[in-house]
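Hi there,

I know you've been waiting on this one. I reran it after we fixed the sequence typo, so this is the corrected version. Both the input and the resulting structure follow.
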Amino acid sequence: MAHLRASVYLRTRKSGYTAIFYDPDRSPQQKYVTLRTRDKTVARRKLSDLEQEYVLGQFDPWKDAAPQNGILLDEAIEQFLKARKDRRPKTIRADASTLNLFAGEMKAGCLVQQIEPHHVQRFLDRGLSAPTLNTYHTRLKTFFSWCIEQGLCRDNPLQRIPKPKVKHKEKQYLSKQQYEQLLRCIETDATLRVESIKSGEVVWLANLVRFAVGTGLRLGELTSLSWDAVDLENHLITIRNAGDFTTKSGHERAIPIAGEALDVLRTMHTQRSSEGNDFVFQSRRGRNGDNERLNDEYVSKRFLHYVRLAKLPAGLSFHSLRHTYISWMIMRGVPVPVVQKLAGHADIKTTMGYAHLAPDALRDAVVKVFGRDVPIDLS
């Protein structure tokens, strides 16, 4: 019979559980088998497995080392990343970065099933910000959940580690006044520098800002938008996966356009130099003066330059234009599910993060259904 006992190596920082096998006919009568775990639940399960193998004659603790069947952590990570090939390249790169960083903290030759909560906790206890730790926690938990599905391990070590709490941060968006102030700043600067800049070199940003606020597109969606996705007749644009671009949710969506966003498209359409399937928003910084796709990083930097020049609040970024689109719709009483669809949010909880901007609209919705004097037709 075998039983568990706390390891005598506790003081040497090799703490863990050891299975002790006893047989009066063997020499020595007791045989110690290290279970390589400090988790009692895991230790009991390992002990049960060893006992079963001992009874079946598949394992002899007096002769054999404790079996360590399984897959190496590095190999599991490689398989996991391949299994997620349908995800956005950016997501896969982020997963790879976190998992490889974690693997680097583990001993060479570590098996997936050998990883325990204290290994993960040690990795997370590195003085990182709460949002970063939250992201690491999510990626690691997803990885180990996949490992369980594939039969590579039985437990998710993240299950016993609480997710770091992230302080809710209000999404920054532009007021109507700030929006107009930003546009004036961009266009005034273009006028003042007319002698030193090429035609349209600054004004393109004003068009991009108008279109971003009028459509809520993410920066990558804007710079990847091509003319074949534009339907001027029906006032629609389609955000689709194409080439090296994949939407954040992986799903395509159609967005109706109106107002300034539609005016921008019509003007740019009449100014097109060709009828090919080129990008709607183009850079004039290409070689030999050729137009090419706008660089996301360059757009962000130019936007921040004019935010400072217009003396707008610090903390605004190009993504704030998407927040502006969503916030303005919510404040005008557009139903949350409609906003969710237009914004391309995979989870309605994301859209609900803006609901506090329209307390009157939410109250009116409740009164409309549950108000005492409101007749309800149940037929």
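Quick highlight: The longest helix spans residues 130-149.

Best,
R. S.
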